[in-house]
Specification:
The structure is a single chain. The chain has 484 residues and is an alpha/beta fold. The chain folds into two domains: 104 residues, no CATH class; 330 residues, Rossmann fold. It is 39% helix and 16% strand. It is built from eleven helices and twelve strands. The strands form two sheets. A ten-stranded mixed sheet has the order 3-1-2-5-4-8-9-10-11-12, sandwiched between helices. The protein has a two-stranded antiparallel sheet with strand order 6-7. Strand 6 and strand 7 form a beta hairpin. The chain is globular and about 80 Å long. The model has no long low-confidence stretch (mean pLDDT 91).
Length: 484
C-alpha cells in the first residue's frame, strides 16, 4: 500500500475507536482527529489518486469524520442504542474495513523494482510498418505487418522529467488498453483501472546518455498472448547497465497492442498444432529480423532519431520469454547479425537443422526443469512427434553447452517468474504460474544472469556468474551435458 493509503486506513480505525471508547467530553481529541483524518483523506485522493479497493474506507472515513465533528454540537441528538447493537455494527464495520484494506494489499499499486545499474533509463516508443510483408493474421489482404517497439537506453535525464507510467498516460488510450486486457481476463473493466498509477523507473523521450563508443543492443520478445509491458523491468535494468534494449510487441499475439492512431489490436493467433507453432514462429522470427533492419536505419540516420551513431551493430543480442524465448533461439541461429541469445523458459518450435548452433547461447529454465528431465527419460524412446521434438530440443541444449553456452534453472520459479506479472499481485502466486520464490528475488536473479551473459558476449567484460554455481545465488543450478 502507498503511504497515504496506510495513513488513511489507520486514521479510519482511530476514528472508530474514538467513537466507541472516547467520551464525548473529550472535545479537543475528537476535533483534532476529525480534522487530521479529513486532511489525510483529501491528500490521498488528490495526490495518490482514488482506488476502488479503498471505497469502503473512503465512505467510512467520511462518515466517521462527520459524526466525530458534529457529536459535540448542541443540536446533535444524543441517540441511545443498546450495547449489543452498538458492538454488532462496530464489528461489521471492522470486517468491511479489513476487507477493503485486504483488497488494497493484495491488488496493490505496484512499481517496478529499483534499477541496480549506474545509469538512469530512458524510453521511447516507435511504430514500424514492414511494407514488404503482408499481415497474415488478419482477413484484410491489404494489411501490412505493423509493429510497436519500445526502446530503452541509458540517460542522464538532465531535464528532471518525471518517471514514466507503465501503461499509457493518455486517458483514452489507457481505457482502450484496459478494455482489451479485461476482456481477455474476463474481468470488469474497473477492476484494472488502478494500473494507471503504476510506475517504471524510466523517463520518457529524454536524451540518450552521450558515449564515446556506441551501445550494444539487445532485442526482447514477450511470450505468446502477453505483451512487451511484462518485460519492462528487464529492459530498463539492462539499459541502466549501458545497453540499448528494444522490446517488441508481436501484433495479434498480445493481450493488447496500441498504435499511435488509437487502434488497439488483441489476440488473434491460432496455436492448435505443431505446424501452427512453426508458422507463427516464422512470423515472429521475421519480426525480429525486420526490427534489426530498422535499428540499422536508426543508427545510420535513414530513420531520423537521436540514436544515430549510438548503436553498436557488431554487438547485437536477442532474448525472450516462452514463445519469445524460442524466437530468440531461432533468430540467433538464422541471423548472422545476432551475436548471442537468451531463452527464458521457452520450448523450441523449430528443432530441424538447429543442432549445429555455434554462437553463445543461454537457456534459463524454471525450477521444475530437473523433475521434467527425470520424467521425460521414461518417454524418450517414444516415436510420437512431440516426444521427438522435445528429444531434439535437449540434444540442441547439449550442443549449446558443448559450444561454451549454458543451460541453467532457478529453483523456486515457475513460468511467469520470468516476467513482471509476479509484481502485479501476491495472489498471482496462488494460481501456480509463479513459484514459491519471492518475486523481487526471482527477478533479481534472472536480471543478474542475463546481464552477466550479455556483458561477456557483447561487451567483453564480466562473465563470472555463468562460469558455474555461485554462493550468492544458490537457487541457480547448472545443467551438465550428461544430464541431458
Amino acid at each position: 500500500m502507498r503511504l497515504f493509503e496506510i495513513l488513511l486506513v489507520l486514521s479510519c480505525f482511530a476514528l472508530l475507536v474514538d467513537l466507541l471508547f472516547i467520551k464525548r467530553s473529550a472535545k479537543k481529541t475528537g476535533l483534532s482527529l476529525g480534522i487530521g483524518s479529513g486532511v489525510i483523506l483529501l491528500v490521498q485522493l488528490f495526490v495518490e489518486g482514488y482506488r476502488w479497493q479503498l471505497l469502503l474506507v473512503y465512505i467510512m472515513t467520511a462518515l466517521f469524520i462527520l459524526i466525530v465533528l458534529f457529536r459535540h454540537s448542541e443540536k446533535m441528538v444524543n441517540l441511545k442504542i443498546g450495547k449489543f447493537l452498538k458492538y454488532s455494527l462496530s464489528s461489521l464495520i471492522v470486517i468491511l474495513l479489513v476487507v477493503s484494506t485486504g483488497l488494497s494489499v493484495y491488488l496493490p499499486v505496484f512499481n517496478l523494482p529499483k534499477l541496480d545499474g549506474p545509469e538512469k533509463a530512458g524510453t521511447q516508443t516507435l511504430h514500424f510498418t514492414d511494407q514488404n510483408r503482408e499481415e497474415v493474421l488478419t482477413e484484410d489482404q491489404s494489411d501490412k505487418r505493423e509493429l510497436m517497439v519500445q526502446v530503452w537506453y541509458p540517460t542522464e535525464n538532465s531535464n528532471n522529467n518525471k518517471r514514466d507510467t507503465l501503461f499509457p498516460k493518455d486517458k483514452e488510450r489507457f481505457k482502450k488498453y484496459i478494455q482489451s486486457f479485461s476482456t481477455s481476463l474476463k474481468l470488469p473493466e474497473f477492476v484494472l483501472d488502478y494500473w494507471k498509477y503504476s510506475q517504471t523507473n524510466s523517463y520518457e523521450n529524454v536524451e540518450i546518455l552521450p558515449t564515446a563508443s556506441p551501445y550494444p543492443v539487445v532485442l526482447l520478445s514477450h511470450g505468446m498472448g502477453t505483451s512487451r509491458v511484462l518485460h519492462a523491468s528487464q529492459a530498463e535494468n539492462l539499459a541502466s547497465h549501458g545497453f540499448i534494449v528494444v522490446t517488441i510487441d508481436h501484433t495479434y499475439s498480445t493481450f493488447a497492442t496500441i498504435f499511435p492512431d488509437g487502434r488497439v489490436t488483441d489476440y488473434k493467433t491460432k496455436m492448435t498444432t505443431v505446424e501452427d507453432r512453426r508458422e507463427v514462429g516464422s512470423i515472429w522470427t521475421q519480426d525480429v529480423e525486420f526490427v534489426i533492419n530498422q535499428i540499422e536505419k536508426l543508427n545510420s540516420g535513414a530513420i531520423e532519431s537521436q540514436f544515430k551513431g549510438k548503436i553498436d551493430l557488431n554487438n547485437i543480442g536477442v532474448m525472450g520469454h516462452s514463445f519469445g524465448g524460442a524466437t530468440a533461439f531461432n533468430t540467433t541461429y538464422l541471423d548472422h547479425r545476432i551475436k548471442a541469445g537468451v531463452n527464458m523458459d521457452g520450448s523450441l518450435y523449430e528443432v530441424e537443422n538447429r543442432d549445429d548452433i555455434n554462437k553463445p547461447f543461454l537457456f534459463i529454465r524454471s525450477g521444475n526443469f530437473k523433475d521434467w528431465l527425470a520424467n521425460f527419460d521414461n518417454d524418450r524412446n517414444s516415436d510420437d512427434e512431440v516426444t521427438k521434438s522435445l528429444s531434439d530440443e535437449l540434444h540442441i541444449m547439449k550442443n549449446v553447452i558443448n559450444q561454451g553456452g549454458d543451460v541453467i534453472y532457478v529453483e523456486g520459479t515457475q513460468h511467469f517468474n520470468f516476467t513482471d506479472l509476479q509484481f502485479y499481485s501476491p495472489l498471482i502466486k496462488l494460481s501456480g504460474i509463479t513459484g514459491d520464490i519471492d518475486g523481487n528475488r526471482g527477478s533479481s536473479i534472472v536480471n543478474q544472469y542475463v546481464l552477466d551473459f550479455f556483458n561477456k558476449q557483447l561487451k567483453g567484460t564480466g562473465g563470472n556468474l555463468i562460469q558455474g554455481p555461485s554462493d550468492k545465488y544458490p537457487e541457480v543450478k547448472f545443467i551438465k551435458p550428461e544430464d541431458l
